Amino acid sequence: MFSYYAWYSVGSHFYWSKAFPLYGRDYQSVLEAIDKMEKNLPGFFYAGNHKGGLSVGKSIASGCKAADLVISYLDSSSDNMKPN
Ligand SMILES: Cc1cc2nc3c(=O)[nH]c(=O)nc-3n(C[C@H](O)[C@H](O)[C@H](O)COP(=O)(O)OP(=O)(O)OC[C@H]3O[C@@H](n4cnc5c(N)ncnc54)[C@H](O)[C@@H]3O)c2cc1C
């Protein structure tokens, strides 16, 4: 695979000159780790192309979804702080 996609590395970064890298074979474990972080860290929401698909359009959709979750979270947090 690496012979087809020309790449080189600088430090810890890989630069792909003819293609962009796709999800790896253990991608499911990445999704599970993201889910775990979101569950264990209230108020933390993950967005971007690691979750929900590659491409600018999908990343924007992922960001909008996360923004909705943040708004709901903040609304429910402020509701809990209101005096009864
Ligand atoms: C070569 C190439 C061609 C592509 N062509 C297309 C195309 O034609 N059409 C299309 O729809 N999609 C294309 N894509 C895919 C698309 O660019 C990505 O899916 C999309 O940009 C991902 O958006 P993102 O916001 O999740 O991540 P990114 O756009 O990668 O943004 C992440 C940001 O976080 C910053 N960052 C990273 N680490 C840290 C840190 N520790 N602290 C602070 N900031 C940090 C980075 O500098 C970057 O600005 C292409 C991708 C590549 C690589």
Automatic annotation (TrEMBL):
Q: Which residues form the Amine oxidase domain?
A: 12-71
Which sequence ranges are marked TM in the entry?
A: none
List where this protein forms a coiled coil: none
Gene Ontology MF annotations: oxidoreductase activity
UniProt protein name = Amine oxidase domain-containing protein
Q: Which organism is it from?
A: Linum tenue
